[in-house]
Amino acid sequence: MANLTSFFNPKSIAIIGASKSPEKIGNVIVKNITSSGYTGMVFPINPREKEINGLVCYPSINMAPAPVELAVISVPSTMVLEVVKACGKSGVKNLVVITAGFKETGKKGLELEKTLASICHQYKMQMLGPNCVGFIDTHTPINASFAAGFPMKGEIAFISQSGAMVISILDWSTSVGLGFSKFISLGNKTNLNEAHFIEHVADDPNTKVILCYIEDVENGTLFLETARRASRKKPLIILKSGISQAGARAASSHTGALAGSDLAYEAAFLQSGVIRVRSMSELFDLAIAFANQPIPGGERVAIITNSGGPGIVATDNIELKNLKMAHFTKDTIKELGQFLPGESNIYNPVDVLGDAKADRYRLATNKVMDDQGVDSAVVLLCAGGVTEPVETARAMIEIKKNHPEKPLVAAFMGGELVAEGANTLAAAGIPCYNFPEPAISSLSGMVSYARNIHLLEDETVLTYQDIDAKSVRSILNQVKRDNRLVLLGSEAAKLISAYGIPATTTILTTQPEEAADVAEKMGYPVVLKVASPRITHKTDVGGVKFGLESFEEVRKGFIEIMEKIQMYMPRVAVNGVEVQRMMPKGTELIIGMTRDIQFGPLIAFGLGGIYVNLIKDVSFRLAHRLSIREIKKLIGETKAYSLLRGYRGEPPADIGAIVEVIGRFAKLVTDFPEITEVDINPLFAYSKGVSAVDVKITIS
Ligand code: COA
């Protein structure tokens, strides 16, 4: 992993491409570094100048009077390779390359970027960018970017794949008084990527909350491991835009078609404890709450409002966002009843009425914050003729001091009438939103973070002593030798059996009598299925016969299937007919896998059968470190779970066996990367055990 201590806290900085012209980025960077309060040595580098902004200028990096710990490069792209090489030769270990004109511009730019990457690798240099704004650290302090302004010191680190977003958030943050520890503009992520910075700020004592805006991740496994470690230390909130490439690939399996575009990211965030937000406003709403408020001890929320409407909106949102309305104790209700006017609502949401001044808010908020049944409180204030927003804000600040363990957030609704009150709250670290919804969303984000982190503690991953990887390898080798991409049903059944997944016995036969002999040994009833990697929907072409009860039925069945295939698909090669034991009907499930380009195997579980794509009762998880807890959660998320628990008097299914099968399945698809897609559909679940009836496996 990268060591970014000297990157963010260098003893000396060179700006290569420093310029005297105030309109050039090379000039802005020099100004930003010197005006940020940076106390280390600063060396502008420019072959044509002797002095820039009062600093001695050097013609090249090797002429700098002391070792350079960080070089910020702002020369045209045609010069970058030469300059970076010179940095490497001079022993510089940390680079920021501002210059654009690399892979974002096409093939030539991509080649340039590859060479840049290899120079960094050759000289063991860590590089931010290229094509980035740079970075800011308010604690060093240093502004090694060309963004105007310097943020207030704070405890939020913002890592962004969009440079423009860094510039605009920086500007906005100073206007709303929000403090940051670091701003990092990732650029093209050629060398250092989001994972390196997440890892660093997770251990940074000046950072309490990590915010990320990303369009993709550079390395799926590295991201998963890093995010999991980081989110156990502090909240990691991510806004991810764009769609994953997995969805762009045409999917040939049910699972592939169900997986869609973004599910691998969704699963990755869920499994690593990341809080995913869907909008920029949510990203910062949540950041403000996390930066200033304690994590709530539970999900019970109290509302104090001076108007019924917003109180109802907040109540609805509490339900929508998986929180609970707090039930007050008798004492709280009694005291609220004693001190509030008779028309007030003394139950949750507490309505202190439209003519409430600060004293009523103080009393009601104090009482509910004291209540043992309340984990957090939201104060709603609608601007009105007699409201006292500033005094109310001051009362909230006092109350919060006496309740450091419980979050208190507010929504002051209005414009000028409430602005000063809202600013008073924000300055004291009480998040104040414009409307109830973001206030509730922020509390919900904090509660779900607490839940997730708690769950991440239990990470038991199943291990298996009885798996037979050799058999799987030999089946796959045979398929490859035959130049096939799809396994026959009999091969697929054998393959999953080798990993301990119970599969219905399936035997390939090539003659009618052979099929009938096999059926005699197997025991009736049996199913016959045409065996051809080219025929995916066997039933549609008359390729399946169920419930055959005798030697003669099987023999005839074989002949009829072959005739039908001859008729419907005369040019398709057929390997024979598979004889399969006809299993008693169980609950029909699907277990599938599709491979995501970034995160590897993505596992699907849900209600199986022929309507799987219509019903779409399927949930997903990444196979990477899939824990028992996560498998149980995956099963629990589906409607199939209600059936499995015993629906309408049916006996419950063997959920333990399903958990075991999913664990083994995850191991199988992780161990064999050449398996690209799998559908086990249906998997019959019984009150004791399970059986995979139809298995389709595709390899690369
Ligand atoms: N060593 C040191 N200085 C050098 C040099 C070298 N090898 N080669 C050139 N320079 C100097 C130039 O002489 C110039 O100084 P001057 O003003 O005294 O003449 C300075 O470096 C800058 O070079 P210049 O050719 O004037 O380029 P520029 O400032 O117009 O543009 C970039 C350079 C990097 C800003 C530009 O190429 C670029 O990439 N812009 C986009 C940046 C961006 O958007 N990044 C992503 C944000 S999300």
What does this structure look like?
Helices cover 40% and strands 22% of the residues. It is α/β, with parallel strands linked by helices. The chain folds into four domains: 5-207, Rossmann fold, CATH 3.40.50; 295-456, Succinyl-CoA synthetase domains (Rossmann fold, 3-Layer(aba) Sandwich); 469-581, 2-Layer Sandwich (Dna Ligase, domain 1), CATH 3.30.1490; 587-699, ATP-grasp fold, B domain (D-amino Acid Aminotransferase, Chain A, domain 1, 2-Layer Sandwich), CATH 3.30.470.20. Strands 9-8-11-10-12-13-14 form a seven-stranded mixed beta sheet, sandwiched between helices. Strands 15, 16, 17, 18, 19 and 20 form a six-stranded parallel beta sheet that branches. Mean pLDDT is 93; it is low at 244-252. The structure holds coenzyme A. Residues 16-17, 19-21, 24-26, 45-49, 74-77, 79, 83, 98-101, 131-133, 163 line the site of coenzyme A.
Topology readout:
Blueprint: H1 5-8, E1 12-16, H2 25-35, E2 41-45, E3 51-52, E4 55-56, E5 70-73, H3 77-89, E6 94-97, H4 107-122, E7 126-128, E8 134-137, E9 142-145, E10 152-160, H5 163-176, E11 179-185, H6 194-202, E12 209-214, H7 220-233, E13 236-240, H8 254-259, H9 263-272, E14 275-277, H10 280-292, E15 300-305, H11 308-320, E16 324-325, H12 330-339, E17 350-351, H13 358-370, E18 376-382, H14 389-402, E19 408-413, H15 416-427, E20 432-433, H16 436-456, H17 469-481, H18 489-498, E21 506-509, H19 512-522, E22 526-531, E23 544-548, H20 551-568, E24 576-581, E25 587-596, E26 600-607, H21 612-615, E27 618-622, H22 628-636, H23 640-644, H24 655-671, E28 675-685, E29 690-692, E30 695-699
Parallel strand pairs: 1-2, 1-5, 5-6, 6-7, 10-11, 10-12, 12-13, 13-14, 15-16, 15-17, 15-18, 18-19, 19-20
Antiparallel strand pairs: 3-4, 8-9, 8-11, 21-24, 22-23, 22-24, 25-26, 25-28, 26-27, 28-29, 28-30
Helix pairs in contact: 3-4, 6-7, 7-9, 10-16, 11-16, 12-13, 13-14, 14-15, 17-18, 19-20
